[in-house]
Structure formats: structure tokens, C-alpha cells
Design goal:
133 residues; alpha+beta; D-amino Acid Aminotransferase, Chain A, domain 1; 4 helices; 7 strands; 22% strand
Length: 133
């Protein structure tokens, strides 16, 4: 698993950790407000041993749009695609070259800040979400 942290809108390079449980504080935004989203994509291996990712830029764009709606920072498209590529290469033994042997990648973005209050909505986001009646 590759884990990165955000300070403001900037994400760290991150680091790899062995697959396992993720520890969350009981006041994490993802638990209290559902501030989290996932993007899934597949990785396939070609006959010559290279890897193919199906539209990672579109996944990055969807994550960015979803994060904006949830008032969360999101990685840039380059950070997203780099992380997916690094994760696939780190787990290449699990990516086969035949039909049905693709690896499914899940990119997650969760709000785990140790606070009960969610991030304050920006004015443009507030205008999109709130309608006067």
C-alpha cells in the first residue's frame, strides 16, 4: 500500500507499507461524515512484459471532482498516476498476462484528521451545494 499525507493542498511523496489494517482515530472525518472516496482501475501485463493502465488520468480527474465536492484536498493528476504506476510496479508479481489475470487497483482518499469538525467549505463550493428557496 502506498500512503501519502496532505498538508493543506500539498501531498507528500508518500511511502509503501505492507498490506494490512489501517488505524483510524474515532473522530476521523471519514467515520463521522463519510468524507472518503475510492477510484478503481485495472492493470494488465502485455506479452512483452510491460504494464497497461486503463485511463488513469480519468480516474484522477474523477477523484479530484469528488474530493472538491467533499471539501477535501486531492492529489494532482501527476501525483495520482505516479502513485498508481509505483504501486503496480511494486506489486508486479500479482499482474498476469492473460485474460482475467488483471490486477485491480483501488486508490482511496479519506479524511482522517483528528477533529470532529469537517473542513470548512469554500465560498464557490458553498454556492454550488446550497440553494436558496
Amino acid at each position: 500500500m502506498k500512503c501519502s499525507k496532505a498538508k493543506g493542498d500539498d501531498f507528500s511523496q508518500g511511502h509503501f507499507t505492507p498490506y494490512g489494517n489501517v488505524e483510524l482515530n474515532p473522530s476521523a472525518g471519514v467515520l463521522n461524515y463519510g468524507q472518503g472516496l475510492y477510484e478503481g482501475l485495472k492493470a494488465n501485463r502485455t506479452e512483452d512484459g510491460r504494464f497497461l493502465l486503463f485511463s488513469p488520468e480519468l480516474n484522477a480527474l474523477r477523484m479530484k471532482m469528488g474530493a472538491e465536492r467533499l471539501c477535501m484536498p486531492s492529489p494532482s493528476t501527476q501525483q495520482f498516476t505516479d502513485s498508481i504506476e509505483q504501486t503496480v510496479l511494486a506489486n508486479k508479481r500479482w499482474v498476469g498476462g492473460k485474460l482475467g489475470q488483471d490486477a485491480k487497483c483501488k486508490a482511496g482518499l479519506v479524511f482522517v484528521c483528528k477533529t470532529i469538525q469537517p473542513k470548512r467549505m469554500s465560498e464557490p463550493v458553498r454556492r454550488k451545494l446550497l440553494r436558496k428557496i
